Sequence to fold (281 residues):
Amino acid sequence: MRIDLHTHSNVSDGTQTPSDLIRSAATAGLDVVALTDHDQTTGWAPAAETAKELGVGFIPGMEITCQDPNGISVHLLSYLHDPTYQPLLDELELSRDARIIRAQRIVERLAEDYPVSWDLVNEHCQPGATIGRPHIADALVAAGVSENRNEAFANILSSRSKYYVAHPAVRPAEAVKLVREAGGVPVFAHPKASLRGRTVPNSTFYEMIDAGLGGVEIHHRDNSEEGKEWLLDLAAKKNLIITGSSDYHGTGKLNRLGENVTEPEMLQRIIQESSGTQASV
Ligand code: AMP
Ligand code: FE
Ligand code: FE
Ligand code: ZN
Fold:
């Protein structure tokens, strides 16, 4: 069984439609795939339909943008939650609205030095998609400023760049609580991705665990080796679910489908703990 529980379509910052992503998952030989777009679930229906046609197992998911009390960005994966649970929807809407204002501010700053505009960025973002820096990166590529997304993130769009603007988002422990209330299973995404920027202090892990954290995404290319060891130890001590995934974004990132996978027993635990929506495996 090859199970990949973290992928993005063009409903957020991936480059393929949800259906095309599922087709790629089938071609890559995956047995089960989760769609985990940033801060929304509009890709679930088309992805589920294509998965059914192709006989691929499908797990509806989402990746929630959070910010810890120290201002550090945290990504929380949610699996099998009820997509109509209003308190969670309210937080997601706030976050997506804040993302639009923040993206506009980044573009304003960039426009002082580079030939990019809000219109150009929108040409690279599907209507209604969760906007983020990857769409701004695509505009920089189209304008001939950057070679690809990765190069744009290495300098102009880095969180250390002078053009960077942060945006407010829900606290990680609060998001964990909301996901559980919605019947979902919360899993901390790439918790030790030290190359992307600062990672959270241990206190944030403990707050999330106290709030009901279900698991940690350990097998992910962005976690440091040292971080993975630490996480394995934490998971053993706190009886957390362990996942491994690609964080595929189509051609937007180097990450390939199935480059990391999750053990079937771990997926079984996710399904058993959930009550928000059905898995089709
Ligand atoms: P934002 O949510 O706007 O802060 O942008 C962060 C998103 O950018 C993450 O969800 C990643 O998928 C994406 N990202 C981060 N680093 C890179 C990179 N080097 N190349 C392509 N995409 C990246
Ligand atoms: Fe992303
Ligand atoms: Fe993430
Ligand atoms: Zn992701």
User: Anything to note?
Assistant: The two ends are 11 Å apart (CA to CA). The chain has a mean pLDDT of 97.
